[in-house]
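QA checklist item 7 of 12: single-chain prediction sanity check.
[x] sequence parsed
[x] length recorded as 154
[x] structure emitted
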Amino acid sequence: MKEWGVPMQVNTSRFGTVEVDDNRVITFEKGLLGFSKYSQFVLIQPADDSYFYWLQSTETPELAFVVTDPALFVPDYRVAIKNEQMDELGLESIEDAQVLVIVNKRGQSLTGNLQGPLVVNINGCRGQQLVLADRRYNTRTPLMELNNANAATA
């Protein structure tokens, strides 16, 4: 079990300043696609029962992405992780990997980038964005339709 870290303040444009343990910082050594100069992020869960999280940069308050576990919406979604990627992430076992996808709102739909999943070593707090060659998946896979009641909270 992971020990508690040192509290740190993270400035966000959506939630103000939030306090997180420094051992919850996820390092994406290569950054994310289009944002390679930012490598330090934390996951912020807006509500205990939320399926969605904010992947918030610790380096700039304006940079944050909504992410989710794609298996909640696409049960047969699988990400093949190569041995060299496992080494880069410090993964000893595939069970130590958490897969997340970036979510976007398009009209009244939420879509997920299943072609560019984020793989995080839940023990080592290292992450990497992969680009899948599998053409079954794309960058705008429908996850769910919004109705007026939950459109404002998405």
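[x] summary fact logged: Helices lie at 83-89, 148-151.
[ ] second reviewer sign-off
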